[in-house]
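Look over this record before class:
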Amino acid sequence: MYQSSGITRLVALVCMGFLSQAITAQPGAGFSEHALESAGADRSYLLYVPDNYAGEPVLLVFSFHGSGGVPRNQVETSGLTTIADQHGFAVAFPAGEFTNSITARSWNANVEDGVDDVQFVRDMIEDIAGQMAIDRSRIYTSGFSGGGRISSRLACELSDILAAAAPVAGPQYPDDCTLKRPIPVIAFHAMDDQVNTYEVAADSRPYWRMGVETALDKWRQANGCSLVGQHDRLGQGVTLHTWTDCAGAANLTFYQTVNGNHTWPGSGQGEAVESIDASKLIWEFFSRHQLP
């Protein structure tokens, strides 16, 4: 009897040990660095877990840095970690490894020879899901400049995985795009952008293949939105363009600024306009959309 009771207690202790291990294996609040192999290449990303994470499934937002940058640049530019703590979602800040015609540490948004960033995102999702509970119906992509271009690519190729996309200073529409479903998109761009020019010109960078309005019109058509949208002048050189009659509630929203050059609105960096806060607007947009 005593032996049986001892074995029972031992099994219970072992089970408690496994349970404790499972709990402590969850990532703590704040930043952690992660490495993985994706499509034969060594890749990495920063993961931010909100202060109040307690093991429940959370939203996951990807935020891609601009060409030549690193994840920490995007942490500072976007300010998304503060919003993540307020609303309880996780943010992944991937590191770019692609070398384009202008710079290294960029993203393979035009699908040239080199790294496979679409597969990288698939692998990051599984890697993160192995560490913490994520809500598979609420995964989103955002990014600045080159990060906006790769978010445009991901919105197309992973439209069945991502709930919405938010390219800043880099909205494009992949020429080879065939959506698996309409996907909500919110975009920001300055008309005086000197890097990713508002309209394609002779001196535009080789990777910049279409003007902003052309790209947005292609997204409008792909999402089944009518030609007629709503256009509201918000003041201080900001115009809000919205299309809300789209298939599958895949609304299209565009904040057009006269000034701001190549910046993230509301970031306090460079010539950024401060009358709108792109990060807050992105979160509000994301919070209204999830996979059907």
Remarks:
- The longest helix spans residues 2-24.
- Residues 139 and 162 are 5 Å apart (CA to CA).
